[in-house]
Amino acid sequence: MKSETGSSGFAPPPYPFDVPVEVSALADAMPGGAVDLSRGVPCDPVPDVVAAALAEPDPARPYPPSIGTPELLDAVVGWCGRRIGVEIEPDQVGACVGTKELVTGLPHLLKLRKPDRDTVLYPAVSYPSYEMGAVLAGCRAVPVPLDASWRIDLSAIHEDDAERALCLWVNTPGNPTGALDDLGAAAEWGRARGIPVLSDECYVEFTWSGPSRSILQHGTEGVLAVHSLSKRSNLAGLRVGFYAGDPDLAWYLRETRRHQGLLIPGPAQAAGAAALRDQDHVDIQAARYFRRLEVLVEVLGSLGVRAGLPEGGFYLWVEAPGGDEMALVRRLAGDLGVVTSPGTVFGPGGAGWVRLAAVVTDDDLEVVCRRASALAG
Question: What domains, with CATH codes, occur in the chain?
């Protein structure tokens, strides 16, 4: 990530998910317009239980608690017990205004707590906000290499970096690759060095290879799991997330974030609690995403582009023929009207790969299928 710091201070780098003009133009030129598979923006219906909760006016009246309402915290505790088999207490949980603000804000708060440390470790091919959070906190952002299966390689972390580390980020199922890390090994690595391990688990409900994984299944000491309702419940616009884990770290975050005035609106907290207590809509959504992934694999195959289903998440991580990711991005835009993300958005290690998000309405997916059929026939 490149930025410029001069006499006028920090200058933000370009936003990584902005689509290049040439790609947008190619896709928009397709009769019927572009189909955007570049970002994971929910497009399916809001669950009925959430709509009913939002219709209640009372939660809008008082100031909402920063740490989360008792109802929301209780719903998180219940979800952890039911879905990942982990028993935690409400004081080990805190609410966040969507998880992106937590991801980018945590290095700053951790730096205040341990000013003698200055390094954020994160997967070398990953969501750009891990790196950006370090940059915004004035910290060193140090990518951790991945192995041949796109899993984080803890053995590749230099001990000099570990000694300076504020935290280690892991992400399972991973974005963009869909890989599943060994979270037990990550927790053990962090505890042995006194480094908090922050596990971004926002795609946990969409784990296709085996049961859902959480770092909390390996104990809460020294770890924090970060979860979002944006993906599981189509609630990206409500900005409801939570963190859970180490009691001391949870206490620190709950208290510091109160001073920052970070509040999820009361109606959104009520809706979040309702969403966490209902699993039926999540299972329906998971089935939608898996079916769409299968369809996109077939579409790419019809173009001679090899793709496989991920271990988790709703992205396809596709190797570009000839190793030219922008050539494949342009080809998909020109041939199918599809907008995708080049792998370099997720770090230099993503060169030669392209990410497609299966976050698209069934109607739009049918448009893509018809275009692919026309090309083939």
Answer: 16-45+281-376 (3.90.1150.10), 48-277 (3.40.640.10)
